[in-house]
Amino acid sequence: MNIVVCIKQVPDEPIIRIDSERMTLIREGTESTINPLDRVALEAGLHLRKHNGGQVTVLSMGPPRGEESLREALAAGADRAILLTDPAFAGSDTLATSHVLARAISRLRPFPDLLLCGMKTIDSDTGHVGPQIAEELGIPQVCGVNKINLEEDSLVVERLSDGFLDTVKVTLPALISVSRECCPVRSLPLGALEIAFSQGDVTRWGCQELGVSEEEVGLKGSATRVRRLLTPAFTRKGEIVSGSPRLLVDRLIGTLEAVGLLDEEDG
Ligand SMILES: Cc1cc2nc3c(=O)[nH]c(=O)nc-3n(C[C@H](O)[C@H](O)[C@H](O)COP(=O)(O)OP(=O)(O)OC[C@H]3O[C@@H](n4cnc5c(N)ncnc54)[C@H](O)[C@@H]3O)c2cc1C
What we know:
Blueprint: E1 2-6, E2 9-11, E3 18-19, E4 24-25, E5 32-34, H1 36-52, E6 55-61, H2 67-76, E7 80-84, H3 94-107, E8 114-118, H4 129-137, E9 141-151, E10 154-161, E11 164-171, E12 174-178, H5 190-199, E13 202-205, H6 207-210, H7 245-258
Parallel strand pairs: 1-6, 1-8, 6-7, 7-13, 8-12, 9-12
Antiparallel strand pairs: 2-5, 3-4, 9-10, 10-11
């Protein structure tokens, strides 16, 4: 079974900084990590390989430093790592990102049986990329999967939607995006990290290798433009009150009446 896992490198910091001119995330000078759900997707891929054989290829689109995350994936056990990097990719929205990833996947021989993604990232958080890759490649997709079982040439997967458990059968090749519950994530052994960082091989593909023009990618190839970014203003103030239950109830009723949320007749 040939599996591709899409991995995004994301900032590993609680506060992100935005370039106010370009309206893009400032990635320089920040610590980075593999998007947590992509680690889950990788573990799920490695688990399937362990029981069914085959190869796991990890794919990431991003700046050259994305190579670190791919080396971590090699340390976790991936067989092959490909970094999609080109100055022309900078500023890509989700559609342009998916286009680059789909083009890279369509170049792989044999065409992979299974594509695994995280359900969403912790930085842009759209959940668009997986479904858009599947659409561009014309293959079926199931999102938010928390359990994967392989049955000959199809997968039977489970996902929670609106509190109900869906069981879905999907023929391969297919794209699955995973939720946190799909697979436990191991911590990486130091020795494996050392080997991956000193000897691991990361292939690089840019526009030329992918056969895409600069018009199809980056800001030029993006269907969306970020016009403005605002930090939401918090107008609500919290208030902690203490005292006897009787006093607290009176206080709460008084406050609700004062802001017009409770009529005197309601009381
Ligand atoms: C309207 C809009 C405009 C934007 N404009 C810009 C811009 O001008 N400049 C800019 O830098 N960014 C921009 N972004 C952010 C950029 O689109 C995202 O960083 C990128 O497309 C991934 O989207 P996401 O993080 O929401 O991924 P999601 O769709 O949440 O990711 C789901 C999964 O897809 C896979 N995946 C996602 N991205 C990658 C990747 N790069 N490589 C490999 N796998 C991946 C992972 O498995 C991930 O878990 C914009 C986003 C939006 C919504």
